[in-house]
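Please, structure for the following, as tokens.
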Amino acid sequence: MLKSNQANPLLLRNYGQFLQEVEKDVSKVEEYNGRAILASLGDGEVLSLYEKTHMGDA
């Protein structure tokens, strides 16, 4: 589903969250959260997740 909707900010954000919570893959989390931010610049939740990833709070 993600392959066919690569610019969908909700899917990107949710997949980034999955990678963070389940897979613990920080580099992929950064990639997908970054893509979600670019897809939806006004989404505060994505920005918050990105910040938590970089601050180590997640």
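The chain has one domain: 3-55. The mean pLDDT is 85.
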